[in-house]
Amino acid sequence: MYFTSLPDHNKPGFDEQLHFSSFKKHNIVFNALVSSSNCESHVGCLSFKTVLTGEEWYGINNRRIAVRPGQFLILNDAQTYSSSIDTVGKVQSFSIFFKNGFASAVFSDKLYTEEQSLDRPFYNEGQVPEFFQTLNCTEPGLLKQLSDLIFSLENEGYDSNLVDEHLVGVLQYLIGTYKSETKRAYAVNAVKASTRAEIYKRLCVAKDFMYSCFADKPDLQAISNEACLSVPQLVRQFKAVFNTTPHQCLTRIRLEYAAGLLKQTNTPIHEITWKCGFENMSAFCRAFKSEYGVQPHNHRRIS
Fold this sequence. Notes:
By secondary structure, this protein is α+β, with helices and mostly antiparallel strands.
C-alpha cells in the first residue's frame, strides 16, 4: 500500500483502530509532503523513518528524537511512539511499515546459508532482530535503495510485487545496520553481554540527544542525565565505542548541520551561528575552518 498524505488523527470520526489494523497485513509506504502532523501515541509494527526535507520528531520511551535529512530511525514491532511535524515550510516525510511475516522472511534469508534455505524454502521462524532504535546515517547504499523505490512509485505507480522487491533490498540493508550496531556494542567495556547491550543503548540515547538538541548547547551533565550514566562513565564508554568524546561529537554535529545550511540555503552566516549553538560568529568560523579547511562563506561558494 502506498500513501502520499499522512492521516489526520484529530479529524472527527477518524477510526484509529481501523487505520492501524492494516499495518500488520500489508507493507505500507508513506511519502508525504506536509506542513504539520501530529500522532500522540500508538503502537506500530517494525518501521523505517526518515525525512527528505525538514524535520520530524518522534517520542520513544520518554525521550524525543529529531529525524532530519541524511538520518533514519528504525522502530521495533509493538513499540509505542508518537510523531509530530510542526515547522516552517514543508516536510517530506518518508516511512515504511513492514508486515511481520515479510520482515521475518528476509531476516531468515540473511540468517541461513544457501544450502539451509534450499532445504526449507518456506520455513520462517517469525523472528525479526531487535533494533537499537537509534539515529543512523543514510549511507549511499541505502540512499540508492530508497531512491529506486521512490522513482518506481512516482513513475510506474504502485505495484505490490515490484514494491516488495525494493523492500527486500531495504530490509537487507537495515539488517546489515543491525549487525554493525551489535558489533559496535562489543566495544563497550563490560564483561557481561547484557551489560554491554544496556550501556550501548544508553550511549545511543546520549548520541541521539546531541543530534536532536545540539542548538540548545547541552553540557556534559545534561547529556549524562539523559543517558542515565555518570559523566566519567559517559566520557569513557563513548570514547571506547564511537572513537570520539561527547564534546567532539557535539561539535561535529553542529558543524555538519551548519555545512548543510550553507550548501542548501541562503541563510546568513550570523543566523547559522546561533542556529547551530555557537557563542559568536568568530568562534563558529574558527571551528568550521578547523573541520573543513575553509571559511564558511568559501564553503558556500564552492558548494
